[in-house]
Fold this sequence. Notes:
single chain; disordered C terminus; alpha/beta; seven-stranded mixed beta sheet
Amino acid sequence: MANEDASAAWGQRAAGWVRDTRLLDMAFAPFTAAVLEAADLGSAMRVLDVGCGTGTLLEGITDYGTGRDDVKSVGVDVSLSMVDAARRRVPAATVIRADAQVADLSQMSGGQVFDRVVSRFGVMFFDDAVAAFTNIRSAAAPGARLAFASWREDETDMFLHGLRAIGARLDTPVGPPTIGAPGPLGLANADHIRDVLTAAGWTSVEIAAIDGLCDFRLDGADGIEERLAMVLNGSVGQHVRSQLEPQLGPEGWQEALDEAREELRGQMVDGGVQITGRTWLVTASNAGDAQPWSL
């Protein structure tokens, strides 16, 4: 795969994302709704979900299409375990394991082209974003609409909330992912997003800042354990753990986790862990005939 680093990283973390599907769906619900609304779904549409994960958007598309047999959805992801989870969750959808940067998405979907292309936090990890969005556009019908959400450059809490205290133990203080590098903040700058999409042939690019309250209080809990599990499964959390756990040993690591719990407990809102997520909501159009991309 062209996206070998991203594929390997997702493979390592996928078990956690599958485990936390309900939590992620609850926490990211504002952005799921925003993408689906921006997609402007209609009858007789073929919809592609890039980086579909465990199938959240696919489920929303299927719910929209209930009673509309002509609405078809296809999901693509690099993680086999998340593809399997999406297939179980949304049996009405077609879910394929592939790298959207290079795969012939139309051919892998039975030769169809897509009227809508959507993603919730699934398009920031490409090694070559221009190549990826050009390839995705090659599977889009003339006039197709693109709608996706990506984290904004001023977003830090989503990656650090619960890690700041224990991260301070590192020789180099922990920080958010690198802006502009393949990863969670790969499409965090609005000018960069516009440049990438324009170079890839998309037109009518619109970028809006969308903030949403991410609630981690799953099933009436205070959200502390839920947030801690989620943040430790992310790239920053895995780095912190890989550095500190061997250094501190089992007991010391548990003490560090208790310190993280105290950090979260001291910043609860309305009796639980809630974070304001900062994202871009991006839409664009495929104005003309898509041109196949080859490397």
